[in-house]
Design a protein that fits this description.
Layout lengths: L6 H11 L9 E5 L2 E4 H15 L5 H12 L2 H17 L6 H12 L5 H10 L4 H21 L8 H10 L5 E2 L2 E9 L2 H12 L4 H7 L3 E8 L6 H7 L11 E3 L2 E11 L2 E2 L2 H30 L3 E3 L3
Antiparallel strand pairs: 1-2, 1-9, 3-8, 4-5, 4-7, 6-7
């Protein structure tokens, strides 16, 4: 169903055609009776950059932002449609929840001044951030009500998926390790040498200051690459050279190797449930959004 353009939007177009609006005010799309401007796009991109700035840095951050930039306008159009649905359902987000989320983001920064500086760097102020967070919460709520709450994964679907994909549920080979954590390089080298020479760990603990821990690790899943490269080359009862990480030294002794095992349906069902639910959820969400688009007036004006 196509909605009529409001008089306000028609006036906007008249001004645009005469070149009166600034570049940031350029209308790039119309969604029902709302406009999306270049500033909306820029603000959305800056919000995404801020959102990922603590998780990614430098080149990795820009690659993440660039990957999302390609379909940014389509995402913004879909967001506007979902927000309209949230408004139609008269959904309201408590301001305390929004403030709590902003404060959570602030805590990632050592100083509030750094948080404000990062916001300014993205061309945003705190009110912009609050508005974006409120919108995200509204969209989450409407998707929860209209889509997620209706997705069901039946037990027979889990069983069928397991039977058809048993090879995907092989538990990798596991290493059982003793980890010795030491404060300096010299003591780490001494302890490593003494262990390889046959000295018992208890005897060394009486002579040197270090702590120990037990660790079970699966290949390619749990360990930092510099540790995995060491421990998965050890034979049973073999001791590693010291590994220096984050101002600590680590010595590893391989105590046991547990071979690859087939997970049972009971062991695999939570993982299968999560996978099938997410798959169904994404399919249902895409279908719901497509239906909303068909009922909406959408015009893209960006060159």
């Amino acid at each position: 169903m196509r909605l009529k353009l409001s008089f306000f939007i028609l006036i906007i177009f008249l001004f645009c055609s005469q070149g009166i609006l600034y570049a940031d005010d350029k209308v790039v799309a119309i969604v029902n009776n709302e406009i999306i401007t270049q500033k909306d796009l820029n603000d959305f991109l800056n919000f995404i950059r801020l959102k990922y700035s603590q998780e990614f840095k430098g080149k990795a951050l820009e690659e993440k932002v660039t990957a999302m930039r390609q379909d940014l306008l389509q995402r913004l159009i879909e967001d506007r449609i979902m927000l309209t649905q949230a408004k139609n359902e008269k959904m309201i987000i408590n301001s305390d929840r929004v403030r709590a989320k902003v404060n959570e983001i602030k805590k990632r920064y050592p100083l509030e001044s750094e948080f404000e500086r990062d916001l300014a760097k993205q061309g945003l102020v705190e009110a912009d951030l609050e508005n974006k967070i409120r919108e995200q919460m509204l969209m989450y709520n409407v998707v929860e009500q209209k889509v997620r709450s209706k997705v069901v994964v039946w037990p027979e679907e889990i069983t069928s998926f397991y039977n058809q994909n048993k090879r995907e549920f092989l538990k990798p080979e596991e290493r059982v390790l003793t980890v010795i954590i030491l404060p300096g390089e010299d003591i780490a080298k001494t302890v490593s040498y003494q262990l390889r020479a046959g000295t018992k760990l208890d005897e060394l603990a009486a002579r040197y200051a270090f702590t120990t821990d037990k660790l079970s690790a699966l290949a390619g899943q749990q360990l930092r690459s510099e540790i995995e490269g060491v421990v998965f080359k050890l034979g049973i009862n073999e001791v590693s050279n010291p590994v220096h990480i984050d101002q600590q030294y680590y010595v590893f002794r391989l105590d046991n190797i547990i071979g690859s095992q087939q997970l049972s349906l009971n062991e695999a069902q939570d993982k299968i449930q999560a996978y099938l639910f997410e798959k169904k959820m994404q399919e249902a969400l895409a279908k719901w959004i497509d239906e909303l688009k068909k009922q909406s007036y959408i015009k893209i004006l960006e060159n």
